[in-house]
């Protein structure tokens, strides 16, 4: 047996947009084990519920993570609404769905770009991110913000999109779909890209199940499960099926996410066809009392919000279980036995979001 | 716009930000905003960097990391705090694990507020950092010349 050596990876590392530290135990070039140490982004925002009242906390919830900021705000709001038994207007539900899917598209495009950067395909990275800017422009047009929107509130939405705006967005998405179809050919068919992604970092269906993975990481190992099917926002009225792949390597994860972008565009199209007119918010009175678990499908997988309220304006407890946290054991499993040079790609294919994980 | 004499290299470190400012920093480096037109190149190595962009506040775990990155950068460096969290802690100021803004541990030259800081604001900060970098270099040269004269 060759000698083992330990290579520290992170927290500041060129391929990592966010800080995480791994001690990689190597035998020559092969990774035998990866030991993570986290906490570089820990802020302790769950405890802020004791200092900010439950309406104000929506802003903090949105800042759990800047990429899925809309979904975090929505998850928190839906949980409190469920405790208070508030039924939000149907138009607000559809708006939530549209903004959710726009978040998913922008997040997946962001991830595709970072992946291209990780395997050194600079022009592909730039091309993907240019496409992502279109989604951000639409966000800015409809909400006023590029990454943090603050359009959620308990009882509905702060802003409405008028129907002309939605029609305009559909046009942009149609253009985007066309150019995206061209772009993803490089991801799926280019031989250089394929050689980096195919047969790297396998996770079997059983492993994915046992290690409790979520989201596209789980679906690309063949488990067909999507929290959107549980039916929050307007999802019960829309038709879609979880996108899966049976292979379970890095290529499958890329493929699943790419198909999810097209699925999201389709969901937006369905929602735009069905969106009813009317109010976007209802007035909410009183304080919440009780507890609730809310499950939301984020771009990275299922996020869980637990809220316990005591009938005052401050909540007792708020807990978030974010998708990356659930995916870390799966990631460590895929790292075992891989080449050192593949580590950045493997870490990226779970689409890690450290600031969610550490809150 | 002032004349730019050198192409500065930029290092980005995520303190404890929510990611919002980080993706805006990355957006600055990609098409539409593209700071490369000012000669700015993103690098991952502190020893190559002239400008340090930090997003997010300082907590107990990353305090040492930030100090170390700063000490590894060669002299004549500029630190830009991006986003309100990096400026003074922002919305997370009251969190138990947040010590405050970046200036609690290293000297900050330029503050870019905003939540999240807009790419235009970040570019403005970076362009100011380039000017400051030139001034620092000039000052050092003048001091060195004065010392030489005395000797």
Structure description:
The complex is a heterodimer of chains A (359) and B (151). By secondary structure, chain A is α+β, with helices and mostly antiparallel strands. Chain A has one domain: Cytochrome-c3 Hydrogenase, chain B (Orthogonal Bundle). Chain A is built from 12 helices and 8 strands. Chain A has a 3-stranded antiparallel sheet with strand order 1-2-3. In chain A, strands 6-7-8 form a 3-stranded antiparallel sheet. In chain A, strand 2 (21-27) and strand 3 form a beta hairpin. The longest helix of chain A has 29 residues, at 90-118. The radius of gyration of chain A is 21 Å and the shape is globular. Chain B has a single domain (9-150), classed as 3-Layer(aba) Sandwich (Rossmann fold). Chain B is 38% helix and 18% strand. In chain B, the strands form 2 sheets. In chain B, strands 2-1-3-5-7 form a 5-stranded parallel sheet. A two-stranded antiparallel ribbon of chain B has the order 4-6. Chain B starts with 8 loop residues before the first strand and ends with a helix. At the A-B interface, helix 4 and helix 12 of A face strand 1 and helix 1 of B.
